[in-house]
Amino acid sequence: MEIRVNPTRMELNRLKKRLKMAERGHKLLKDKRDELIRQFLILVRKNKELREDIEEELSGAFAKFLLARAVMSQDNLEEALMYPTRKLTLDIDKQNIMSVNAPKFSWHEDSDQDEGNSIYPYGFAETSAELDASIETLSGVLSRLMELAEVEKAVQLLSGEIEKTRRRVNALEYVLIPKLTETIKYIAMKLEENERGALVRLMKIKDVVRAKM
Amino acid sequence: MPIDDTAYAYAVGRIRALEARLLDQNRFDRMIDASSAEEVLKMLTESEYASSFGELSNIHDFETILSSELRHIFDLLETITPWPELIAIMALRYDVHNLKVLFKARYLDIKSNLLIPVGTCPTGKMVQAVAEDDFRDLPDRLRIAAEKVNEDFLVNHDPQVIDLILDQALFEELISRAEKANVPFLKGLFIRQIDLINLKTLVRVKNMGFGREFFKKAFLPNGNLSFDQLGGSIDEPLESLIVQLGMTEYATLVDEGIRDWLDRGTASRFEKLADDYITAYLKKGKWMPFGPEPLIGYLWAKEVELKNIRLILVGKINKLPAEAIRERIRDAYI
After folding, report:
1. Cβ-based neighbours of A170, under 8 Å, separated by 6 or more
2. A9-207 topology per CATH
């Protein structure tokens, strides 16, 4: 229950100060939480859109890839895709969302290859034409896949932060603040009790003195 | 012909017996209608493939069976053919595959396990050749091509060019070997394969949005359809190509296959028809009593059969609708 303290006026003042501080912190954290959730919802919505888009495209590409796989031998297929034509360099930076350090990706395709090279790393004689379409889709989807990875990580980090903040808000609201109020009340009562005791004692003494006279 | 046709009597006899054991359309239909991959497997164990598929513990390992079957066919043909050069010619494709793999592995600085142990040059020797830039043991055209690949890659770093150069060299080599051996049937096969690949490449290059120059790089010479005949179509709608080829032997194939490709955006029909076209061509040689034709036909028939089995297994494992499998299944040789 309440905190064990000496019921003194000094302690009372100290606790009152702490209570005020806790209440201020509680208000601030609650604001932070609300803003985090707002940001979170924006990102989650973006994430959902991106993900649905990409999933649809990818499942299309995979279906085509599967058909290409079905008409080519494994060795041929893997030989065809063995040496990728595109290289991607990814730089990771930080971006600050409500003091959460989310990654910020920036990427560019390496230019050690000529502009004229196609995205298809294979020849035509031994490969199925059904492979082309899936490679094309996959190559188009890559940059958005990066974007999705960035957003998804941010969402993950934000959700962790929201949970932490919410736990703090609740701890303040349901534990620390009631405890402090309780203790303050206890000290106040104790002090009043002492005061009343002193008064009664005084009156009693006065009675005794008066009776002797 | 390098040797007397009657020398083929034994080989053709063996082939006749083996042909009877090829899977027919009927059996493929049953496999397509099977409810699961396991059921397909069961049907396979009741066929010619009983011993090899019987040992398969995990269905996803079926590729190892297919490649050992391929190896097996080549071994068999090697023992029965009176003319080993024929098998060497037919195996050249796999040499070129191995070359591609090894070049790419070398440029990536990795080890690769994608080699197919069927080629004329043992894989160990091939590995050494690529590692040491010593292509003396390869046929001349492939040697020159391999050197060209080395030069080009250092400048352009384009893996596609590796394939393009080697494919071109392969088909030039095939044609010249068939000419040298004076087997018109074999040359006819390669010419048709070249034409069909070129037709397919034309549409693919067009779909990729590349122009005439690029098509020239990917074009395989020596076909019946010359670059001048096909190259013009790259900037025109494909309809005109269909009309233009209306008088050639590919008329129906082009009309049906390319139209379907245009309508549905998938080459599946065209590729099936192209393979069927080759099958139909080879079937003409099937009843030759003496000569290399039945051997060539049987080899192709086996390759197509393995392709069909792969298609059905991949389809069933991934639960493709039966129709998607059926429309891609190649005609059986028998």
Report:
1. none
2. Helix Hairpins (1.10.287)
